[in-house]
Amino acid sequence: MVISSSTLIGVSLLNKITKIHAVSKNLLEKDKTKEFEWRFGNIKYRKKGHGNPILLVHSLEVASSSEEWFKVIDNLAKTHTVYTIDLIGCGLSEKPFMTYTNHIFSQLISDFIKVVIGKRTTVITSGNSSSFVISACDNDSTLFEKIILVSPEKLSNGHLIPGKRARTYKAILCTSILGTLLYNIAVYKINIKHNIKQDFYKKEKFTDDMLDKCYEAAHRGLSPKSLYSSLVCFYTKNNIKFELSQIDNSIIIFEGRFNRDSSDITKEYVKINPAIEAVIIDDSKKYPHIENEKEFLKALNIYL
């Protein structure tokens, strides 16, 4: 009993030290943010510029935040009102202890446009955020002007559902001490660096400052592991093929030339909705808006 108690105390202390160290630099709060009081938790966002509204939605990962768009915000704000949002469970927004689903994020985007922006909006998404933005548009297309998907995930990923093993693993992750330890190992700084760097064509483009911000984002808030458990156990997945086929809004896909399976992913989307256009950005993989922001902005301005 003494050994078990000492071990639990030691692990608990290690978890607390890890969290304190991760957020110690306070990098994400350097710029002033606004707050949207949403029913599932307060949402942090930034607003910049004047003109027709653009909403930038970062990829749905535990280490993600609105900082993902730092290289393109200022340029877009010259001619548009740019909103950058930290999704619930991410960045500076609240991270309640709950199961995160595609529907929750879809509702967040719709409510944010209705309440905060208040007019038809062009939405630019990154990575796996494409699925819930498509769902939101299908639910109420009047909220959306254009939808631009940057490196969207495979449509086939929407078929993934939580199985018995996934539900068991999620239950373990929800435990106070062991679950937090497993989460801290998964989002250990070296692991974040490895996972994100492989999505860059030029590895040096992923800087130490960006890594520190990702590390901080993964440890902020009440329960950051709740989003992680929902992601790895497929609770955020949704089959959007039918919704995609019903949308009449203009949809454009931006892909990095060296992004894995980019050609197949684009064909998959165009097969469902032939009106979708595609743009290829040179010298980049999953994050063309970071790796080659000049070419990205040049191509983007054609559609805005």
UniProtKB/TrEMBL annotation:
It comes from the Bacteria. Coiled coil: none annotated. InterPro entries: AB_hydrolase_fold. Keywords: Hydrolase. One of its GO terms (molecular function) is hydrolase activity. This is Alpha/beta hydrolase. SUPFAM superfamilies: alpha/beta-Hydrolases.
